[in-house]
């Protein structure tokens, strides 16, 4: 269960108690990320996330922020996606005041010292180089750029080197003022805490958060037309992502898409794993994922393969897609996928951090925040005709896109494999 309360500023305070843990996670979600950026500030949301840890009024620098949480054995971190960012502290339940004190000082009183901005430019450039040297990550970013094109959903969250090297203190202050407002934040408490205690702490620590307008972002209207994104690189493995447009998180088939991705490649008993890894020995890792944004989505399979067998792997993944579209899934596969998805959610919600994420993300992004029974009811409501009809509609050869990182040098040759 969860409870939603609001401060006089309208800032949402969501509490998801759990009696089976001794921890509390305080997680503040913000509507931020590449969706809220333009070319001129591409990457500022992620850079801002880093800068919040550079100190505020009480905890004046990174060392003091870290020491406060490390001193009680807590965990703290932050993340920036394409539609939201998050800042969390996870502590033993009796230290929840300190968690609120640290996060509120960061978000309310961050000063963005110019000398720290200069140092952090190098840190972020090294983060970018790390991802460039990690093809498993980079191929996924390339796929989204291919699918969503030159739209903020197609941009990686790191941003451009030009922006990273040029943004100044006033840019961070303006971006914070625009996005970090009561109408674009959710303060989430999860774990060993009750709603009254959460509200009392929020009134003490988060009431000063101000601002009146919810920022807008550019809607997504059209998927990219290009079929192949090839990044030629001398790697020992070829890393590929093969997929197609899917449905958004608000679409009526959102849960249908989730279940289809599980059946295709969501676990070790899935079709991709059994038929491609186990039967053919084509790869070590292979997985199918459904990614859903507010007005767009995708379904894709990623794998790392021997470069000499890459064409065989692409053909095998494509065949699994087309076979599923033609023949559908079985009642048994659908039942197993439902049980798997519900089981994974149940296990994850034992962790206060995951519990905060499950509820807080919904409250920030979606018109309705589902409790676990409602969420499971949506999963159970997906019928065999619905999932088979959905598979037939989206698993089409002409809609497939492919990103590859490896020694291959001919994008034209890869495109022929999709025909």
Summarize the entry for a quick read.
The protein has 16 helices and eleven strands. The protein has 419 residues and is an alpha+beta fold. Strand 1 and strand 2 form a beta hairpin.
What does this structure look like?
With 419 residues, the protein is of the alpha+beta class. The chain has two domains: 3-205, 2-Layer Sandwich (Cytochrome Bc1 Complex, Chain A, domain 1); 228-417, Cytochrome Bc1 Complex, Chain A, domain 1. Helix content is 45%, strand content 18%. It is built from 16 helices and eleven strands. Strands 1-2-6-3-5-4 form a six-stranded mixed sheet, sandwiched between helices. Helix 1 crosses helix 7 (169-179) and helix 10 (271-278) packs antiparallel against helix 11. It is globular, with a radius of gyration of 22 Å.
**Under the CATH scheme, which architecture of the largest domain would be assigned?**
2-Layer Sandwich
SSE topology string? EEEHHEEHHHHHEHEEHHEEHHHHHEH
Sheet with the most strands? 6 strands, mixed
Kindly state the percentage of residues in helix.
40-55%
CATH superfamily of the largest domain: Metalloenzyme, LuxS/M16 peptidase-like
Specify the number of helices: 16
Kindly report the CATH topology of the largest domain: Cytochrome Bc1 Complex, Chain A, domain 1
What is the percentage of strand-forming residues? 15-25%
Text of the CATH class of the largest domain: Alpha Beta
N- and C-termini, Cα separation: 49 Å
Q: Please, how many domains?
A: 2
Count of distinct strands? 11
Which strands sit side by side, in order, in the main sheet?
1-2-6-3-5-4
Rg result: 22 Å
Structural shape: globular
Q: Give start-end ranges of low-pLDDT stretches.
A: none
Mean pLDDT score: 96
């Amino acid at each position: 269960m969860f409870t939603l309360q609001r401060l006089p500023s309208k800032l949402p305070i969501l509490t998801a108690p759990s009696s089976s843990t001794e921890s509390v996670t305080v997680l503040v979600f913000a509507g931020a990320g590449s969706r809220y950026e333009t070319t001129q500030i591409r990457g500022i949301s992620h850079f801002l996330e880093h800068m919040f840890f550079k100190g505020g009024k009480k905890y004046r620098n990174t060392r003091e922020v870290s020491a406060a949480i490390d001193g009680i054995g807590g965990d703290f971190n932050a993340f920036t996606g394409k539609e939201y960012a998050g800042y969390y502290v996870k502590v033993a339940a009796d230290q929840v005041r300190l968690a609120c004190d640290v996060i509120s000082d960061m978000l309310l009183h961050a000063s963005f010292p110019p000398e720290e901005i200069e140092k952090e430019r190098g840190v972020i450039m090294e983060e970018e180089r790390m991802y460039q040297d990690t093809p498993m990550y980079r191929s996924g970013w390339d796929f989204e750029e291919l699918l969503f094109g030159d739209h903020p959903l197609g941009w990686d969250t790191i941003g451009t080197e030009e922006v990273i090297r040029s943004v100044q203190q006033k840019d961070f202050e303006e971006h914070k003022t625009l996005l970090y407002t009561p109408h674009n934040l959710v303060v989430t408490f999860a774990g060993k805490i009750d709603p009254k205690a959460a509200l009392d702490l929020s009134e003490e620590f988060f009431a000063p958060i101000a601002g009146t307008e919810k920022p807008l972002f550019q809607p997504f209207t059209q998927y990219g037309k290009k079929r192949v994104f090839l990044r030629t690189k001398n790697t020992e493995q070829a890393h590929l992502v093969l997929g197609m447009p899917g449905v958004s998180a608000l679409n009526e088939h959102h849960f249908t898409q989730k279940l289809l991705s599980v059946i295709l490649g969501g676990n070790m008993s899935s079709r991709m794993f059994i038929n491609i890894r186990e039967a053919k020995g084509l790869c070590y890792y292979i997985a199918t994922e459904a990614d859903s944004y507010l007005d767009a989505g995708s379904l894709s399979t990623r794998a790392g393969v021997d470069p000499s067998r890459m064409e065989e792997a692409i053909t095998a993944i494509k065949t699994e897609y087309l076979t599923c579209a033609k023949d559908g899934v079985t009642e048994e596969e659908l039942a197993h996928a439902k049980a798997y998805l519900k089981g994974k959610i149940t296990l994850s919600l034992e962790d206060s951090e995951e519990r905060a994420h499950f509820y807080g993300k919904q409250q920030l992004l979606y018109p309705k925040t589902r409790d676990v029974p409602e969420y499971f009811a949506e999963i159970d409501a997906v019928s065999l005709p619905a999932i088979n009809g959905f598979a037939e509609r989206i698993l089409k050869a002409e809609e497939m896109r492919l990103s590859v990182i490896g020694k291959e040098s001919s994008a034209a040759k890869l495109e022929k494999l999709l025909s």
